[in-house]
Amino acid sequence: MKRQFLLTSTPNLPFPEWRTVRTQGAFLHHAPELPVLRSADGSVTIIGFVIDPNETTASNQQLIDRIATSARTGLDAALTTCANFGGRWAILIEKAEFEVMLHDACGLRQVFYSDSTLEPAFCASQASTAAKVLALADDVESVNFLNTKFARSREYWWPGDTTRYRGVRCLLPNHYLNLRTRTPTRYGLSQPIGRSSLRVAAEDGMRDLANLVRAVAARSPLALPLTAGWDSRAILAACCRAKVRPHAYTLRFAGYGDSHQDIAISRKLLSRLGLPHQIMDCGATPSDAFRARYRQAVDPTDDEACAIAEGLARLYPQECISLSGHCSEIARCFYYRNGETHMRMDPETMANITGMDATPWVLRQFGQWMAGARDTIAATGICWLDLFYWEQRAGRWAANGQAQWDIVHDRFTPFSYRPLLLKLLSADAVCRAKPYTLYRELIRAGASELLKEPVNPQTTPASRGPLKTMFARVLQTEFS
């Protein structure tokens, strides 16, 4: 179970190969591949890595010590400091006045936790990880959800902050967890986002993207899964502006010939930049041995995803952090592609646009999310559908998809950076919707030559084949 963790009050090591870090009030057990670091004063523990795009040479240790310094002033100061970091991280802060846990802007370093109805208290990278160690009981209504048509698909995700286990919740993006009361609180979204011109949003956005890429490249070699889509091309443009040369690759699925848009367009783009292009062939069926390891490591599991992971385990350059264009869809009007922001918002609409069965339980989860988000919508001016995508689809669906690949590599998602997302969301929705004028200008600000090839032209028969599953899309960051 690579890159996973369990925070408990007991020193007992849950898995033989794991390691334990003693924090001020708990024991953090973690897989050896997962970086864990503490501040000099011991008040802050970071799981994963943090990035400051405004100080690209700063180390993990320097940034975690900065959090500890701000925490001496109080919780609000610590939260403000953390909100200005990118990366893929969960952060534990233990002070006499407060004890909290929070994660990166899109919740990609997932945190699952026991609420006040459940003992013992814990936090974990996956609910299923905790279930392997602790006696967790299934929640009847959650299990009923698993029998719905939506949950029987390979792309299902959990609504609200639910899991299949009674008393176990998922910490949503833009929330911190009070470890003493075991309750989440939304933070960091209390000011109007304002309105920016297309030019300003694109230039400021690309500057942040390039600085984020530059900062992570100072720590590790990078790999970029490239397609014909917008998001991976925006990341490639950021690499160009940052003068970073990633190892670029494209996954070849069954039925993908050399003329498929993802392969053909990616090859042309990289040729313009003088970068090599690796094609990684994905098998159709995983081996029994790898399937067994995979099912122990992730939940839910899927044979197609497992076969892709096995191919990556064989071909992916293990020294590299994988760049991801994920979460960019937050600023691309995913649920209202025409830029019309006045759709009526209620739990029934949310179930409809996500494809979930509108059961009373599902509607109750979305209703509770809406009640908690209402003040944020009023204070910030963020569109309901954008915040819904951010906290629900990105925080649950995309985060789960990224966790599928922890068995292979760690990922860095530059778009999981709150200041960047707010800058992009400040542009008019008409610019952010199809034909994605903002993204065209964003790429132009990074490397205008990348616009000489079409984006998602859908010109070949293979390109019109069946839509890939969630797991393939997460790997390819191929959202259009």
Question: Main traits of this protein?
Answer:
single chain; 480 residues; alpha+beta; 2 domains; 6-stranded antiparallel sheet; globular
Q: What is the CATH first-level class name of the largest domain?
A: Alpha Beta
The DSSP helix count reads 17
Strand portion, in percent? 15-25%
**Helix-strand category:** alpha+beta
Q: What percentage of residues falls in helices of 4 or more residues?
A: 25-40%
Mean pLDDT: 92
What's the Cα radius of gyration? Answer: 21 Å
CATH superfamily of the largest domain: HUPs
Count the domains. Answer: 2
pLDDT < 50 stretches: 460-480
Give the CA-CA distance, first to last residue: 32 Å
CATH topology term of the largest domain:
Rossmann fold
Walk across the major sheet and give the strand order. Answer: 2-3-1-9-8-10
Shape: globular
Architecture of the largest domain in CATH?
A: 3-Layer(aba) Sandwich
